[in-house]
Specification:
- The protein is an all-alpha fold.
- The chain has a domain of about 180 residues: MFS general substrate transporter like domains (Growth Hormone, Chain: A, Up-down Bundle).
- α1 runs antiparallel to α2.
Length: about 375
């Protein structure tokens, strides 16, 4: 019963994490998506830092479990507070649930409490009214729809594979820290510190150089550290082994986090939850391979290290096929996701591309009803696309 309860608890926690992750992403404009995600990751890290202190205060694991349950009960109470926990209007519009989308947008406009929000609300009401003509039925999608596409399916497999490698190769580096960090708390705080460092590194680089280039860099660094430790551990000084292990832990954290964030940006809204769930599940599978190294009378650690080092090289080649999502609006439909092509590696992505929330299905830009044409100084009409 304990094992079954832990299984259900882990599934519920993963579902809550996934839902909150997507909700934050879909409420942000392109320039703010990465920053909001990194801030949320720091809240997660803060919880990891507080957990050892809470465990020391509680002493008994039953008391600790009760304290955690009380906190989760307070979070569950938000379900009955619609002002604090709203459904994603982007998903409602993409799935043609227009009545719920209208109510959610009105709640967001009223919650803003500013003239700017009221003006947006008044401009969106006619558009929602026009979309409601003909009583359109909701259009839901399942995870199977991903495998009926070409580009979306390929991108999902690549990023899921990269997340699997980042979380799986992590233990190959942490094992080298065990002789140097004999105490549990010192090793625990070191690992949490590398996770925080990875978040800061992603925040400083991914918005400037693009998601694909930074993911490629982190994967290359992870592979180099892994190969050096695999081939030269017995010939290197302990300080160098320790440094390579810390760098490998940090970059593997960055690979996992950036792969999940990258997948959330290139997956279309109608299947974003299902596709991102596959990527997160792949990272969990990578963590689950760690017990292989504990099999007695075997070379589990060595074989596992070789396997993941080889996978890293394969991942470096596959990342080249990914599109760039920096500054781009989130794709809405499956057709939008299948139009995501990979640019040249060092192509500078656009800084901003604000796509209206009410973009019609199957079109990446539908400005005709939302943005009026303007007239240039020469008297010629300037279209919204030219703007």
């Amino acid at each position: 019963m304990v094992l079954v309860s832990r299984l259900l608890f882990g599934a519920a926690l993963a579902g809550a994490f996934l839902s909150l992750y997507i909700a934050r992403l879909e409420l942000c404009e392109p320039p703010h998506r990465l920053g909001v995600t990194v801030v949320a990751s720091f809240f997660w890290i803060a919880g990891e830092l507080l957990l050892p202190g809470l465990a020391v205060l509680c002493r008994d694991w039953r008391v600790l479990q009760g304290a955690v349950t009380m906190v989760l009960a307070l979070v569950a109470a938000l379900w009955w507070c619609p002002v604090l926990l709203l459904e994603s209007p982007r998903w409602l519009l993409a799935t043609r649930q227009l009545d719920r989308a209208r109510d959610t947008l009105k709640a967001l406009g009223q919650g803003s409490g500013s003239e700017h929000g009221s003006g947006h609300q008044q401009s969106l009401c006619p558009e929602l009214q026009s979309l409601c003509e003909g009583s359109p039925q909701p259009q839901y999608h399942s995870v199977c729809d991903i495998f009926n596409t070409h580009i979306i399916w390929r991108n999902s497999v690549i990023l899921g594979f990269t997340a699997f490698i980042g979380s799986g190769i992590h233990y190959c580096f942490t094992r080298n820290l065990e002789p140097h960090l004999p105490h549990f708390f010192s090793s625990y705080f070191t690992l949490v510190g590398t996770e925080a460092t990875a978040c800061i590194f992603i925040f400083l680089t991914a918005e400037r150089f693009g998601r694909r280039a930074v993911l490629l860099l982190c994967t290359v660094l992870t592979g180099i550290c892994s190969l050096l430790l695999l081939a030269l551990t017995q010939y290197l000084l302990e300080f160098i082994v320790l440094t390579l292990s810390v760098v490998g832990i940090t970059t593997s954290h960055a690979v996992t986090m950036l792969s999940i964030f990258f997948a959330s940006e290139i997956l279309p809204t109608v299947v974003r939850g299902a596709g991102l769930g596959l990527s997160v599940g792949a990272s969990f599978v990578g963590k689950a391979t760690a017990p292989i190294t504990a099999i007695p009378n075997s070379h589990g650690f060595f074989l596992r290290h070789i396997l993941f080092a080889s996978f890293t090289i394969l991942s470096i080649l596959s990342i080249m096929l990914l599109p760039e999502s920096q500054g781009h609006s989130l794709p809405q439909t499956l057709e939008d996701g299948d139009r995501e092509r990979h640019p040249p590696l060092f192509h500078q992505p656009p800084h901003e591309d604000h796509m209206p929330l009410l973009a019609g299905p199957g079109s990446q830009h539908n400005y005709s009803n939302l943005t009026p044409s303007t007239t240039s100084e020469t008297g010629s009409t300037v279209t919204p696309h030219e703007i």
